[in-house]
Protein 1
Amino acid sequence: MDEVTNDTLHSVTEAAAHAANDTVGKFTESFIQFLKALCTWENLFRLIGAVLIIFVIWVVFKLISRGIKRIPEAKMQTHYRNIVSKMVSYLFYFLVAMYILSLFGVKLSAIWGAAGIAGVAIGFAAQTSVSNLISGIFVLGEKTMKVGDFIIVGGISGTVDEIGLLSVKIHNLDGQMIRIPNSTIINSNFQNNSFFNTRRFTFEVSVAYEADHEKALEVLSKIPETCSTVLKDPAPKVWYDGLEESGLSLKLAVWIKPSDLAQTKNDIYIKIVKAFQESGLEIPYNKLDVNVKK
């Protein structure tokens, strides 16, 4: 009984070994025939031609990219150069991919058909992205900002670092990066504090009712003359703006460069307090009288 079993196992093992050898042998033979069919002079020349064509496309891509980067800022702003460079890069990879697929006999018409169907499906699934893309075209077309501008959108403020087709990236005064979708910029109130070369800033100070109001007007009007960052044209303006609970509201408006805002605010506020103190003019403020009864 044991001898019969051993003979059966031996026969099965031999059969499996022969089957494996036949399978491996056929696979190896087929693979060798495939390599022989592939390694022909025609295919070799075709490969060399393909490499040369891809190399030429790569050289043209590099030349165009360098040309775009050398365009002066006066003719094309930085964010436009970045967008054009990205589009050229995408076009390069697309052309190379299409050419390689054509070498393998892939029909491009079938790819275009599949791409159209996929595009419709993706469009429905990514309506927000499409909205941002369309809004980005309007943002770029309107030219309402550039890299380095200080903007305010929906209560968020910061300096523009990058303007893209989908969003605008800024960093706020705390050094935090904020990404604002282009659709938000289109649908919200947008403010660019750096769009023009000059801007006006208004200072407000209260003067006590008992003070000499003509003197207060004269003292405040002389303060811009002592501040180097205040522009003389347009000239500063001073006026009374209303009656408050504890005094008259006096305003001073000056024109400055956007980059000088912080320094101007520091200088003017310090000079206002100092000038009023030296002139004996009181700036009213809330006071609390405490009476202690035994």
Protein 2
Amino acid sequence: MYGIVLEGGGAKGAYQIGAWKALRELGIEFNGVVGTSIGTINAALMIQDDFEAACDLWSKVDIFASDSMGNEIYSQLATYKFTSKDPMKIKKEIKEAFGIEGMDISSLRRYVNSMVKEDIIRKASKDFGLVTISMKKRRGLRLFKEDIPQGQLGDYIVASCYFPIYKTIEMNGDFFLDGSYYDRLPTKMLIDKGYKNIIEIRLYPPKQDEEKQIYDSNVNVITIYPKEYLGKTMDFNKKTVIRNMKLGYSDAYKVFKDIKDI
């Protein structure tokens, strides 16, 4: 049995759905999934074992993006290169470059809340975890489902994805920020939970020093990552989504074929 870690990376997240398809076909079983940002949404659907809903989401995600701010601004934003990685400066840059306060993701929030089946996730024997940042507490949060208030699982999933280009939404007197600014690849969550066999499904190739990183001599970490560029974080173009799903599928298959051949 494995624990699965899903990295944050916006539109690149379609890659993880392709990898999940391969794991399903290979009969790879898992006891828990944790994710950050888009990885959190994908993780919830994996815990629900709802591959059909995942495919439905990724077939509509470009429509959500374009409807939220209009086709013209969305098209420009999809290829726009921000000059800063600081979230507050990104918000300012959005205002200066596009004349908007941010992207309205209320429709996406409603869709996620309708798609996420909180009762199924809570009753599941599998662990589910996410990462977000509390602006009120001024710190990152690594939360498992038991740490999240009843009835608010869907909202916390959206909170994990709250990229600075989105309009700010209040939740329980707090504001949240995308968990990627704190922990984009929350492998440590599963290690601290006692997992010894972990599959990381990454959206960025590991840096050279990361490839040599050893979490613990007793922990076996298998990494699936793209060998090709998956595109920009906000490029939800349908062709890109389909391409990235195919890449995730083939990369996951190759990784486990190589393991069996050892």
